[in-house]
Amino acid sequence: MTDAQETASATAAQAPAPESGPAPVPLLAPREGIPPVTVTSHELGRVTASFAQATGPVAVDAERASGYRYGQRAYLIQLRREGAGTALVDPVACPDLSGLDAALSGTEWVLHAATQDLPCLREIGMQPTSLFDTELAGRLAGFARVGLGAMVENVLGYALEKGHSAVDWSTRPLPEPWLRYAALDVELLVDLRNALEEELSRQGKLEWAREEFAAIVAAPAPPPRKDPWRRTSGMHKVRRRRQMAAVRELWTARDAVAQRRDVSPGKVLTDAAIVEAALAMPASTRALAALPGYGQRMSRKQLEQWQAAVDRARTLPESELPQQSQAPGGPPPPRSWADKDPAAAARLTAARSGVTARAEELNLPQENLLTPDTVRRLCWEPPDPLTRDAVTGALRALGAREWQIGQTAALLTAALAVSG
């Protein structure tokens, strides 16, 4: 461990300021009032010019309509920057924000839970070149609650308005209370960023945070999930391959309807209803209608649509039925390690214990020190020969950041030497 790492480790264990104190001050309205929603190319040009001439980091947020619409597209973009104030942009009316993105090139973006918003921002042409994630900063600094409202309250002493985060943001026109809520989400984001930067610096963790932020910016867009139907809630009840095929057929049919109608799949047919039909494998629409989730409100046409999906699954040849589990993309589930490889199980127990203890010393969540998947993969296939340099290389290949390697390579080298 270097001198810098030793200094960081000594200071990192200090907890942030207590999350208590005077009652928070309600933040009821944006400083400059609620800005008009940008809906035309001319208005967007004025916003772009204003933000290009402004200074300092830019606070960015996005509102989606999860649970109401198909997919995760953005329905409102909020921005705030010193010298430009706050802007609210309608990405439905202005679907190409690449010009605004170009105007902000080289500017640090401040987001809360950046990985949630970046995919929908990319869809409309916005991609940061550098960022500061206030949620991730809060985790690294050791805060117990890292939601935006809790962070603003605990760090800055203000109480944000609550209650509109889960509304249907595809609604047009957007009600004034919702717009006020949206504007307030970026009102203090840069102030929060500055306070967290100071706290991270005090704890010796600022460079760690910068590595994390850079990794988020550099990360490629995730590939489409393989066999997304396997994530149907209640899937664990489905044991037979033909029943699994019914889940797949119903899920696929539901997804096509949801996409065509631009509604959340759960509003078309619930996961619970899909599982019920797969377990029962009804032979007729009458039998299907008797199952939970297919009641009186469902039209005959809809029942026939879902029955057709079940019938397709029933008539598939054995060779086309899904396998019980996907091809393994890594180690087996840890619960099976004791039987499959007792030595690996012993290594995993030792590694988990070491990482947990180190995370507690550093006052940060274990998963932020090192992801559980990284620990599992390393323990299942440790490097040979087992040296600290080899462990360092393995961690780097698995995507660990340099600060994580500095904090865990030695303890993991010792853990991997455990033979059971």
From TrEMBL:
Residues 1-18 have a biased composition (Low complexity). SMART domains: 35EXOc (SM00474), HRDC (SM00341). Pfam families: DNA_pol_A_exo1 (PF01612), DNA_pol_A_exoN (PF18305), HRDC (PF00570). Residues 240-320 form the HRDC domain. GO terms for molecular function: 3'-5' exonuclease activity; nucleic acid binding; nucleotide binding. PROSITE patterns: HRDC. GO terms for biological process: nucleobase-containing compound metabolic process. Residues 1-30, 317-340 are annotated as: Disordered. SUPFAM superfamilies: HRDC-like, Ribonuclease H-like. InterPro entries: 3'-5'_exonuclease_dom, Exo_C, HRDC-like_sf, HRDC_dom, HRDC_dom_sf, RNase_D-like, RNaseH-like_sf, RNaseH_sf. This is Ribonuclease D.
